[in-house]
Amino acid sequence: MKKLIFIIILMLGLSIGYSQSIEYTNQVTVAWDEVLPIELTDIITYQVWIDSIMTGIVMAGETDLLEYTITFTQEGEYIIGVNTKRIVASTGDIVYSDMNWSNEDIPVGATLIPFVVRYIKPIQSPGNLRLQ
Description:
This protein has one helix at 2-17; strands spanning 21-24, 27-31, 43-52, 56-63, 67-71, 76-87, 94-96, 100-101, 115-119. By secondary structure, the chain is mainly β. It has a single domain (21-119), classed as Immunoglobulins (Immunoglobulin-like). Strands 1, 3, 4, 6, 7, 8 and 9 form a seven-stranded mixed β-sheet that branches. Strand 3 (43-52) and strand 4 form a beta hairpin. The longest helix is centred in the N-terminal third of the chain and has 16 residues, at 2-17. It is elongated, with a radius of gyration of 21 Å. The model is unreliable at 10-17 (pLDDT under 50).
């Protein structure tokens, strides 16, 4: 009996330890921490990506800001990713960082509260409500 209680407590602890937020919306603004250039003349931009069953992985856009707004038009669940793009000014070489996906905290601390975005189109309310 003690083993069973221990296993139940352990499973509850593991499930609470990994929580993932689901945001129900058709528009979301994501933000991230600044990545400092290695050389002062480097050009740093951020590429924002979405991944879903409907679209696969596609770039939503590229920005030099620390936030980006995405509007969804198709119903579904979306994972958002961001990576850094560095253009070395002295050579023109382009270097990309690893991707930071919204649904996983890898590397640890990259996404403190993992999340996905789920868009469900609203349905019309019934009209012409009346007494019979």
